[in-house]
Amino acid sequence: MAALDVVLPDLGADAGDEAQVSFWYFDVGERIEKEDDLVEMITDKATFNVPSPIAGTLVELLIDENDTAKVGEVICVIEPDEEE
Amino acid sequence: MKLQNRAVTSRRFPPWLVKRVRHCASFDATRAVVDELGLSTVCRSAHCPNVSECFSEGTATFMILGEVCTRDCAFCAVAHGKAANVDHTEPQRLAEAVRRMGLSHAVVTSVTRDDLPDGGAGAFAETIRAVRRRSTATIEVLIPDFQGSADALETVLDAHPDVLNHNVETVRRLYASVRPQADYEQSLEVIRRARAHTRSVVTKSGIMVGLSETRSELGEAFRDLADAGCQVLTLGQYLAPTLAHHPVARYVTPEEFDGLREEALGAGLNEVSAGPFVRSSYHAGETLSRMQVESERISASDGQEEH
What we know:
The structure holds 2 protein chains of 2 kinds.
Chain A: E1 4-7, E2 18-24, E3 31-32, E4 37-42, E5 47-51, E6 56-61, E7 68-70, E8 74-80
Antiparallel strand pairs in A: 1-8, 2-4, 2-7, 3-6, 4-5, 6-8
Chain B: H1 4-7, E1 18-20, H2 25-36, E2 40-41, H3 42-45, H4 51-56, E3 61-64, E4 68-69, E5 79-80, H5 90-101, E6 105-110, H6 121-134, E7 138-142, H7 150-157, E8 163-165, H8 175-178, H9 184-197, E9 202-209, H10 215-227, E10 232-237, H11 254-267, E11 271-274, H12 284-306
Parallel strand pairs in B: 3-6, 4-5, 6-7, 7-8, 8-9, 9-10, 10-11
Antiparallel strand pairs in B: 2-3
Helix pairs in contact in B: 5-6, 6-7, 7-9, 10-11
């Protein structure tokens, strides 16, 4: 399976709306389990945690802390575990 | 993995106000039905933080009569100004969405339409009837005050919704700053009249906390609602849609929400949903199911007393 682009999900406003990265729970190179919280995002309205859709290794973080991402934008890339 | 407690010290929001959001196919499927049928949802228009959860579960709260409201409440993200023309195909399209989504409970609200002679009551009634023709879903309508018009309210009630929800939104004292185009007594009267008109309709209201109301003012509102015949109450944390809206006075803890729920039940409300992310129609179908089970139990025991 190819590396997975994780996109910022819909947060409750219009598509294209932004959220600010508050905190990445993992560094590049670290292993992630499925459902682990990847990142804390904040908007004017609330704080959101995005869980990991798969188990694997975080290979790229595309948005730095305190920078913003748009709904639908790729925020990180995960290399899935090898299938047995 | 980094220390998790570092993340929960987010500057702006308390640690319990964190929503997990994930991108999934069922979210996209709900969004597709709504978009294909040209419908609006209050979920998106009011920037509800639950949208990811509810759409993924295949539910949504429809908003009829356009996306522009004739009022300008200080807490609301919905656009205000000149409202849209009434689209008479909307009831059928909404009924079709209910069918496609397989909803067992349909919730319909509207923007406030003070520009229409009936305030939009006819559209609500048409929508209820259209859904009834296409589905066996229970129907909940979240209505404006129709500027106190008894006729408009009757138009909606005569279409026999299962739940009549009208939110008082806040306590009496804060109406001037939070809901200047509405009236606290008038909103209580909507509940009172609904209960008097149709014994079988479930009456419901909602209050946002964190707008600078006091605990005793909330207690008074609970009693006022119970006296007016309100059966179901929702209590949720007010979140400012933008920093230009009414500021959040405070964040109420989950424990305090539990306390408020007990107090509201003690004041005479039958069913209370309370929590930071609770909203008027959050898990509304489950709330109605609980009410129906309870009222069957009460009818059964009343029956026994009469004999």
